[in-house]
Write a structure and sequence with these properties.
alpha/beta, about 140 residues, single chain, 4 helices, about 30% helix, about 25% strand, five-stranded mixed beta sheet, two-stranded antiparallel ribbon
Length: about 140
């Protein structure tokens, strides 16, 4: 199964919470945890450099990956997933934040979208759904 989440590394709460829940669900799956791939797609390619993304993802698991669309690719990628995002200017040019849709897309082993998971549901709920999806209920 693959879990895809859109966000940005300077997100203060929703993004790290969603990724932490994903990491905890992977642990709760036990041996089946190897069947789960977490993918983070940044909506802030201006600040989220490859090096920063690599360091950020290390907080959640060594096998979680981050994707960084170019600023030109981002509108198409987010449109394909029906993700809302918007840059919100801050006090300085580099202190902006990003508004964005906050949910995870869960795909089965055949690449079919099976679940749309809201953040904050908790790792137990995600683990339960993933067990059903992986056939280990």
């Amino acid at each position: 199964a693959v879990v895809v989440f859109f966000g940005f590394t300077q997100c203060p709460d929703v993004c790290p919470t969603a990724l932490q829940e994903m990491a905890q669900a992977k642990q709760l799956l036990g041996a089946d945890g190897v069947k789960l791939q977490g993918i983070f797609i940044t909506v802030d390619p201006e600040r989220d450099t490859p090096e920063l993304l690599k360091a950020y993802m290390a907080n959640f698991g060594p096998d979680f990956v981050a994707l960084r669309p170019t600023p030109e690719q981002l509108p198409k990628v987010t449109k394909d997933f029906k993700i809302y995002y918007k840059k919100v200017e801050g006090q300085t040019p580099t202190s902006y934040t990003m508004e964005h849709s906050a949910a995870s897309f869960v795909y089965d082993s055949q690449g079919r979208l099976r679940l749309y998971v809201r953040p904050g549901s908790g790792p137990q709920v995600l683990t339960h759904d993933l067990r059903l999806l992986l056939g280990g209920a």
